[in-house]
Amino acid sequence: MSGTEDLKRTPLHPLYASYGAKTINFGGWEMPVQYSSILAEHAAVRSRAGLFDVSHMGEIDVTGPQALRCLQHLVTNNVARLQIGQALYSPCCYEDGGTVDDVLIYRTGEENYMVVVNASNIEKDLAWMRAHALGAVITDRSQDVVLLALQGPLAESMLQTLTAYPLGTIGYYRFAQDVDVAGSSCIVSRTGYTGEDGFELYASAADGPALYEALMSAGMQDGLLPVGLGARDTLRLEARLPLYGHELLEDISPLEAGLSTFVKFDKGPFIGRDALLAQKEQGIPRKLIGFELTDRGIARAGYSVLADGVVIGHVTSGTMGPTVKKSIGLALVEREYGEIGRQIAVDIRGQHVAAMIVKTPFYKRVSTSPQV
Known about the structure:
single chain, alpha+beta, 6-stranded mixed sheet
């Protein structure tokens, strides 16, 4: 693509062309949107496995005697429950309850945590964290880390060929450190953003290309495909997993986004607690709902949602779900219109296309475990 000279690139960028990647500008990064096709890559993750370069994500260490106090202040979930080797998901909020970001927190030592943040928010999050450090040491390691995600039902068997570590002992939202994978020392975790089982590998940036090639070689005979951002989006949407910038924003609270499970009011003070508690007590003004179009069309982010001809909200994400084979989406609507089964419409280029609010996730694999 043209005009990419000012975009950031991951350590795996030199490999993209050899796998047929088509790249786009994603939050200031030149990233693959697809390699073979979005449909083929989506199907590979659902039925076999796919390999994602997510090295554009940020890794920020929070360390020292005040690390836990700092994180408890910054995020809505309860970091105190983490043991070494455990991870959790959490939103972070401004004082008014709007969302700064949604992050993963890994407890890597007694006074050591790794916070994984969204790529487009690295600089913003870093400044915000340092402004509320409470004595903790905040270190940005994003440039030093490569992050690969191997996702799909065959992910474990593929990865096991490259390591002696018993991967079956790594539970959901757990991780192991200093794992040798094809000669690279990795943190290997089991979280996922696709609705499937799988692993994330954090390694040194210098080891990234060789590790990626080793993984592709190990899985190629069983149908492993490289996967771009296009299929990442269709996969996460079918599983109803939020994307910052769509379902979460500085003017959308975690409660509105349906993430109340990750807001722990009983853990003590945190930024945004009072505003979120007021929302909980008074009732959230808006609600994130899932819908299916019952007429032909595809809903896109930003399209208006209507009930009885009146605009009640907007689409946050929409696509044709390759696995569920339906035109699906998420929308933020006024709370009183959010019940399952309600008939709504989506304004698609001036046409009011019929839709229905449905239960989510749209897709759920047979075996799942609860997040912490």
